[in-house]
Each structure stands twice: as structure tokens, then as C-alpha cells.
Amino acid sequence: MEAKKTRAVNLTEEELVYPGNRACAGCGLNILYRIGLKAIGRDAILVVPPSCLTVMQGLYPITSTQLSVLNVTFASTAAAASGVRAALRAQDNDHTKVVAWAGDGGTSDIGLQALSGAIERNEDFLYICYDNEAYMNTGVQRSGTTPRGAVTANTSIGGKRERSKDVASIIAAHSPAYVASCSAAYPLDFHDKIAKALGIKGLKYIHAHTPCPPGWQMEEKVAVSIARMAVSNGLYVLYEIEDGRMTLSEPSAKLLKKKSLPRVEEYLQAQGRFKELGSDDIAAIQSDIDSKWAAYRRDMAGAAA
What we know:
Blueprint: H1 28-40, E1 44-48, H2 52-57, E2 68-71, H3 77-90, E3 97-103, H4 105-109, H5 112-120, E4 126-131, H6 167-172, E5 178-183, H7 187-197, E6 204-209, H8 213-216, H9 223-232, E7 239-242, E8 245-248, H10 265-269, H11 279-304
Parallel strand pairs: 1-2, 1-3, 3-4, 4-6, 5-6
Antiparallel strand pairs: 5-7, 7-8
């Protein structure tokens, strides 16, 4: 039976983030953080490496977060979360949740080794990666998840030439307890997947696509609509993986019924970071999307047979 979905009117009224913080206008992380903490609840310890989140939540005594937060080094997020969980076990505390919350740089690049080890040990905590597709906090340098063609502070003329890492698939290959993808454009989906993950023993991983107006070079007011466009054109896919089986989440699941997807060109042209892309580059990106969805349709048809 499909889990009941949360509606905005059903969210808890308790706010675990104080009004006012250092997030940029239009920040997708700010949306996810507020809604995500409602799903996590007050009985939790957050483990956070250097990132936009560190800046946004602030440091004692001016933190905007009402939860306990352990700020750690870039490479040690998953290792530190493992240590927090071990300390809680030593105190016979099995109710306080441990949630690691890191950016794409601290996950796909610098922190991947510790995360891989934590999954192999099947540590019991939730790891959330908010993916704004570059090292935004330090000046918009390219990361492993920076998409092909994006211009950053340290890419050559023409933007990044390599494809981005599919971090969620890398994590899924480790066979953790739960893997899901989310988007800041769909915060209630993010809320429900966190709530579900926290009810599962073992290591859980959630990857969240997070718009960044300064880094993506777009107006603050269109950040959410641009993130929604990435889902509607099939570039970014919302799904869950449990017991090795992928299930597409709405609204991505609706795309399976479409004979053709909206073109990715509008999404790319709405962001200044893709200004160096030529028509051949855009066609190659579109081809990757079409191939991915052709594979989804074959897989789903095979599963239904």
C-alpha cells in the first residue's frame, strides 16, 4: 500500500529554525532545511561539514537551528555520524536520531570515502546530500556533481566538459537500507522520504537537487520553478530504491506515460552558468535524457510483464 502523502496543512506548526538566517535569497537549501527538520523532529543530532549549511545555520551563539549540531571537517561527516551513533548506543539511547547533512562537494568528492565505509558497516543514521552542483560556499568552484557545460570559477572556456557523477547510483551500488532522490521544488516529497527513512534501520541516503541563484546565475524568484523544470523535463528524476528495486516518485512517474518529454533547452537557457553551451552540446544533453527515459520505460515494461 502506498504511504499517505503529507499535505502542507498537515505539517507540524513547530519551527526548528529561528526566523532569519544567512541563506541567500531564493536558496533551495533554506526550503529543504526548514521542511526537513519538521520531519526529523527535535530529538536528533545533526552532523554538518563545512558547507552553505554551516553558513546558513550560523555558529554558536547565533545559530538559527534549535537542534544539537556537530560541525565537523569536510572529509569526516559519515565517520563522525558513526561515532555519534556509537556514543548514543553506549548510553543505551536508541531514540535520538543521527542525521548527517552535507553538500555535494562534501559528499561526492571529499566525503565519499567515509560515506562508503559507513554504508559497508551498515551504520544506523540518515545521510542527506543537498546538491547545488558546485562548491557554492567558497566561490562556485566545480564539484563532482557540476553538470556538463556549466561555467564555474575554475572551469576553462566552454564550461565543464565532463558528465556529473551520479552519486545516488554510486551509493545504491553499496546496497544501503534506503536510497531516495528529492528536489527543493517538491519539499513535501522530501519531508515524507525523510520520515520514511528514519523508520528504517541501517544507513539511509537522500540526494536532494537544490537550486542556487548566485551559482546557477538566475533570478532568485525563479529558483523553485527552474528546479521544477529539471524534474518535468526528465533531467532530474525523483525515485526511491528499496531492496534493490527502484520506484519512480511523482511527478517523475507521470513522465513514463509521455511519448516525448519537454525539451531541456529552456531549462539550460534560463541559467547563466550554461551560457557557453552550443546547439550540439544541448543536443547531446537531450540525447542523454532521452536514452535514460527509454531505459526506464523498458525496465518498467519488463517488471510489469
